[in-house]
Amino acid sequence: MKKPVIAIDGYSSTGKSSISKVIADKLGIVHLDTGALYRGITWFALQNCLNDNGSINLEGLFSSLDQIQLEFKNNSGELVLYLNHIDISKQIRSNEVSANVSLIAKQKEVRDFLLQSQRSLAEKGGIIMDGRDIGTVVLPNADFKFFLTASIDERTKRRYNELLSLGIEAEEQQVKENLIIRDKIDSEREIAPLKQADDAIVIDNTNLTKKETIESILSFIKNF
Ligand code: C5P
Fold it and tell me: What is the 3-state secondary structure (H, E, C) of the chain?
């Protein structure tokens, strides 16, 4: 039986990845957190492609893209992101990466570099992919498309708690500002902006628990 291809897009910290992971487990399909890939490239740039003033050297990054190998490995049930065989799953959640990732993600070279591998993963079906442009650009023919949104205060609270649970120091006001800036850059960029696909189902989960959001999504998928 063919398994569904599901696209989950939406604003930062609406729970896209953690929700997608649970749905993937329930449906026995693969989960790809595409934000982690953009974060991985940003981490690489921060380590290897800096100008003397500490800013990212974009040209340097573009010419180094072919040295980047990103892969997820299953580590006792947790998907762990490896950059050139090194576990970077904690580093990609750092404040430094969050502050720079939207600048990196708006670059055509970077988006082109990641596009084909994302598409090929969906060719056989049975995948849930979360990001910003999955329903609009990466998988426009997905069987199901969802677009998640929530109030900025609720999203700030979730992101702040996530950082604390990872042992990363953060200030709530800074977390909020980062979410606002990222959403603005992501929505206004020229290539593959953060946008609701015309045929996406919108879920505002401000007042929903994670479990309720998952149930809502599954209620649309159950008859597949
Ligand atoms: O999902 P997450 O918040 O980890 O994504 C980090 C950043 O990666 C986003 O703010 C956005 O700039 C970029 N991104 C993107 N396209 C995707 C997924 C993430 O541009 N499909």
Answer: CCCCEEEEEECCCCCHHHHHHHHHHHHCCEEEEHHHHHHHHHHHHHHHCECCCCCECHHHHHHHHHHCCEEEEEECCEEEEEECCEECCCHHHCHHHHHHHHHHHCCHHHHHHHHHHHHHHHCCCCEEEEECCHHHHHCCCCCEEEEEECCHHHHHHHHHHHHHHCCCCCCHHHHHHHHHHHHHHHHHCCCCCCCCCCCCEEEECCCCCHHHHHHHHHHHHCCC
20 is annotated as contributing to ligand binding = no
- What's the CATH number for 5-221? 3.40.50.300
Structure confidence by residue, pLDDT tens digits, 45-103: 999 999 999 999 999 999 999 999 999 998 877 789 999 999 999 999 999 999 999 99
104 CA closest ligand 1 atom index: 12
Distance 1 CA to ligand 1 centre (A): 32
Q: Is 64 annotated as a binding residue?
A: no
Q: Which atom of ligand 1 lies nearest, measured to the CA of 182?
A: 10
The answer to whether ipTM exceeds 0.85 is: yes
